[in-house]
Specification:
about 200 residues, mainly beta, Cathepsin D, subunit A, domain 1, 2 domains, six-stranded antiparallel beta sheet, six-stranded mixed barrel, globular
């Protein structure tokens, strides 16, 4: 299943069977009304887009999820290369990366507009701008972005990242110090093979 979607809001919202769904690998379950205190009506208001539900990890089990800046493809082709192993924390995909040459683990949360780094790893030497992002637990919030150097899969690049907000603090307690958000798609296509649990980045 291949879908073209509108990325203008920075969120991946695609039409699946006539339903406007937020694609979020940071959600363990697909839901249409309310799940663990998160209501679709409230989430829709936060991101400023009409939503019918959230497409979570249970919808991707055993599939190859390919995300481009304007295209999502379930059951995509896997690149002819080894890829990087995916691990899972409470059902959410994670990948080992390097931030400013320091190894750490990142959660892949495509429902997040920006990427984030914990205090222990972020460099604040070069501020670039302030944006707004959304977290179901804390609503809309301001994010200060700073240039940091990332190594993910076989790609090395400088990118703007935010300070890890309070809603993500639990990640550090389970061994993750970063969040990779949908902003990655401005630079690469991301392919997550959930049949072999491998991740690939392809230059867009």
């Amino acid at each position: 299943m291949k879908q073209v979607y509108d990325y203008s809001s920075g969120h991946i919202v695609a039409d699946f069977n006539g339903k406007q769904m937020l694609v979020d690998t940071g959600a363990t379950s697909t839901f249409y009304d309310e799940y663990q205190g998160v209501r679709i009506h409230d989430l829709s208001r936060m991101i400023g887009r009409p939503l019918d539900g959230v497409l979570g990890m249970d919808s991707f089990k055993g599939k190859v999820l390919s995300l481009g800046r304007n295209v999502i493809h379930l059951n995509a082709e896997v690149p002819d290369r080894h890829g990087t192993p995916l691990e899972f924390i409470s059902g959410i995909p994670c990948v080992d990366i390097r931030i400013n040459e320091v190894p750490c683990r990142a959660v892949i949360k495509t429902g997040s507009k920006a990427s984030y780094v914990s205090d222990a790893f972020i460099s604040r030497d070069k501020y670039t701008r302030t944006i707004y992002d959304t977290h179901p637990g804390i609503g809309n919030f301001k994010v200060r972005l700073f240039v940091n150097y990332f190594s993910v899969c076989d790609k090395n690049y400088f990118t703007d990242v935010g300070e890890l907000p309070g809603g993500f603090e639990l990640l550090s307690s389970v061994g993750a110090d970063a969040v990779i958000g949908a902003d990655l798609l401005n630079r690469f296509d991301m392919i997550m093979d959930f049949s072999e649990n491998r991740m690939h980045l392809v230059s867009a």
